[in-house]
Please model this.
Amino acid sequence: MARFDAKPLNPSKLNRAVQRNPAIFGIPFILLMVAASYGMSTFTQTRYDLHDHKVKQLSKAQELGLNKQRKKFDIREEYFKLSSQADDDWEPRRIQRPKGLPEWGVPPTEPPPKP
Model:
């Protein structure tokens, strides 16, 4: 397989200058990268300033302090909380039986026969 020569057939003045001194191409490239970095810093600073401004704006609820450590309302949680409180204060007490009813109640009747 044939190899290509390192030298072009018709070298231009730019090719010859870059081959003699590679810094002719490298130094402007590095200067461009550094200048772009400083140029972009103003845009990034503007971006962060706008974000900071949005964070500092308060809504009406935040100004009034309505949401200080407030949990979201859940109806199931309230139901279980109230039902557990009702069970804590409950105490079994005997009531007087109606007259004519024995102490242990009425004995169960026989279940009806199955057809």
The helical segments are 13-20, 23-56, 60-64, 75-88. The chain has four helices and no strands. The first helix runs from residue 13 to 20. The chain has a mean pLDDT of 78.
